[in-house]
Amino acid sequence: MNDVKLAVLGGEGTGKSALTVRFLTKRFIGEYASNFDSVYNKHMCLERKQLNLEIYDSCSQTQKAKFSLTSELHWADGFVIVYDISDRSSFAFAKALIYRIRAPQTSHCKRAVDSAVFLVGNKRDLCHVREVGWEEGQKLALDNRCQFCELSAAEQSLEVEMMFIRIIKDILINVKLKEKRRPSGSKSMAKLINNVFGKRRKSV
Ligand SMILES: Nc1nc2c(ncn2[C@@H]2O[C@H](COP(=O)(O)OP(=O)(O)OP(=O)(O)O)[C@@H](O)[C@H]2O)c(=O)[nH]1
């Protein structure tokens, strides 16, 4: 069983809860309790693998109070960073979050520097009052090794589901790569013995 931990972060009122609840229930409720952080659990099967998914839906108020994000960076395997396409300040906040996640000094954290990040421009249904261009979102994502999409939690259930599935798949790929890079205990011992005795035998 794989454990996948996903943190949904972003500015106030960008739709973090709406996206999370849309993914978990396929419903758009409209108003969500917003003064506390929530962690949701979902058991799912993806590509014939059983997953135990945990989604941390951050509350903007607590997020502002502790922008260092240290505990999130240690906890999460991947991040969904949400901004509202009709609110430029939320894009600036998303940018700051991405820089924080990708900052070199974050490398001591569990998985932050290489972790999967999905930048989401939410509220696409409000494109008549758009303040952030699609190209700006795309560029920010490309420059910082993130995936990117614009969507509407209010109107696009399937797109929301596909976005979550894509980041979960990226997380699973990262986990696999890390496992490959880290030789198992017995293999590394065999390598060590081979290096010491193998080389000596040659020189006799
Ligand atoms: N038009 C539109 N409204 C949306 C969309 N997604 C969320 N909203 C609305 O935006 C408001 C904020 O949504 P939330 O999901 O509570 O946002 P949040 O980021 O979790 O909020 P905080 O935790 O308080 O920062 C609510 O009124 C939602 O109904 C969307 O795709 N389109």
TrEMBL record:
<dbReference type="InterPro" id="IPR001806">
    <property type="entry name" value="Small_GTPase"/>
</dbReference>
<keyword id="KW-0378">Hydrolase</keyword>
<comment type="similarity">
    <text>Belongs to the small GTPase superfamily. Ras family.</text>
</comment>
<dbReference type="GO" id="GO:0003925">
    <property type="term" value="F:G protein activity"/>
</dbReference>
<protein>
    <recommendedName>
        <fullName>small monomeric GTPase</fullName>
        <ecNumber>3.6.5.2</ecNumber>
    </recommendedName>
</protein>
<keyword id="KW-0547">Nucleotide-binding</keyword>
<dbReference type="Pfam" id="PF00071">
    <property type="entry name" value="Ras"/>
</dbReference>
<dbReference type="GO" id="GO:0005525">
    <property type="term" value="F:GTP binding"/>
</dbReference>
<keyword id="KW-0342">GTP-binding</keyword>
<dbReference type="InterPro" id="IPR027417">
    <property type="entry name" value="P-loop_NTPase"/>
</dbReference>
<dbReference type="InterPro" id="IPR051065">
    <property type="entry name" value="Ras-related_GTPase"/>
</dbReference>
